[in-house]
Amino acid sequence: MEMDHFLRAYCRMQLLGLALAAVPFIGLAQIQDRTEMEALLDDELNTIAVVERHGPSVVAVHVTVQGTPVSPLADVPEEQVPEQLRNLIPFLEPRVPVQQSAGSGFLVEVDGKSRLVTNFHVIRSAMDNATTDLVLGAKIEVTFPERPGHRFEVRVLGVNPSFDLALLELTDGNYPASALPLDIADSDALKVGQKVIAIGNPFGLASTVTSGIVSAVGRLVPSVGQISIPMIQTDAAINPGNSGGPLLNSRGELIGVNTLILNPAGRSFAGLGFAVPSNLLAEALANLDLGGISSISDTRPSLGVSGRQIALGSRRRFTPIGCTPEQHRHSRHGLEG
């Protein structure tokens, strides 16, 4: 009896000891959960806040272009085609080559309307050369983070090759509730060294986030329209598929449209990324929303002076040739040649 009593008492003490020992571990786990968030640097917390708020406004852009139907035996010389197959050629299903490309885009507001911005070169292959219409068999779609399995079809409203910009809208107009238009900041106020955040769709990996700094401003880089425009240079990782995505400041405001990279070593990214400044987008938005193809001359006055080279002895000179008011759209400003 005494032995049983002793064993029961011993077991109770052991159980009590285990219970007491567990209390510090439970408390430690709670403390660890709490201090993990507290341990995040202010810079990290800022990045998390920007991405959580503005990430849903960044889309993946999908471009599909169907080519001309081609006979499955088009590459085979006729004399090499077995005779029994020749009679079947008219019934063979033709191959339709499909060209696919991808990029990024983001939501903005133009006169109270939701619009999507991307780079012109992202959608260029799907467009007719002279209009904003799509070529036969072409399709442009976007995917929002809120609905990754659903592709929204879009139409092209306007493009500006000079600034490598394009404005799109959903054909059904139903934008996800979590997608809010980005505020456009003054890119002229940028300082070299300030933090930037890039969100995009590199290599088809939607909603990829990278960060870095403004490496330089005013870098003159030729655009798709072969006009050198002052770009923002950044070391935030930008790769194929990031084109058209937003470059944000630490307040989550748009400061640039990620556009191109320089990779002299043949690598995907060498720390040399470039973005179209947000002020150029703000300058072009009204004309983009009007529709059609616009250019730098639609927002900035130009003299409309043409020229030709003439030989004078061993030297060549560039001689301006005047134009009449009727020959130039800006003649209303009183400029004459």
In words, what does this structure look like?
The chain is α+β, with helices and mostly antiparallel strands and 337 residues long. It folds into 3 domains: 53-170, Trypsin-like serine proteases (Thrombin, subunit H, Beta Barrel); 187-282, Trypsin-like serine proteases (Thrombin, subunit H, Beta Barrel); 301-337, no CATH class. Helix content is 21%, strand content 32%. The protein has 5 helices and 15 strands. The protein has helices at residues 2-39, 42-54, 83-86, 120-123, 278-290; strands at 58-66, 98-110, 113-118, 138-143, 152-160, 165-170, 195-200, 208-222, 228-234, 246-248, 254-261, 273-277, 292-293, 306-312, 315-321. It has a 6-stranded antiparallel β-barrel with strand order 1-2-3-6-5-4. A 6-stranded antiparallel barrel has the order 7-8-9-12-11-10. A hairpin with a 2-residue loop joins strand 14 and strand 15 (315-321). Mean pLDDT is 80; it is low at 314-337.
Features of this protein?
Thrombin, subunit H, 3 domains, six-stranded antiparallel beta barrel, 15 strands
Give the arrangement of secondary structure elements.
Blueprint (H helix, E strand, L loop, with lengths): L1 H38 L2 H13 L3 E9 L16 H4 L11 E13 L2 E6 L1 H4 L14 E6 L8 E9 L4 E6 L24 E6 L7 E15 L5 E7 L11 E3 L5 E8 L11 E5 H13 L1 E2 L12 E7 L2 E7 L16
Parallel strand pairs: 5-13
Antiparallel strand pairs: 1-2, 1-4, 2-3, 3-6, 4-5, 5-6, 7-8, 7-10, 8-9, 9-12, 10-11, 11-12, 14-15
Biggest sheet features:
6 strands, antiparallel, barrel
Helix content: 10-25%
The count of domains is 3
Spatial gap, N to C terminus: 122 Å
Q: Mean of the pLDDT scores?
A: 80
For the largest sheet, list the strands in their spatial order: 1-2-3-6-5-4
The total of beta strands comes to 15
Strand content: 25-35%
CATH H-level name of the largest domain... which superfamily? Trypsin-like serine proteases
Q: Structural class of the helix and strand makeup?
A: alpha+beta
CATH class of the largest domain: Mainly Beta
Number of helices: 5
CATH topology of the largest domain: Thrombin, subunit H
Q: How does CATH name the architecture of the largest domain?
A: Beta Barrel
User: Helices and strands, in N-to-C order?
Assistant: HHEHEEHEEEEEEEEEHEEE
Instruction: Note poorly predicted spans.
Output: 314-337
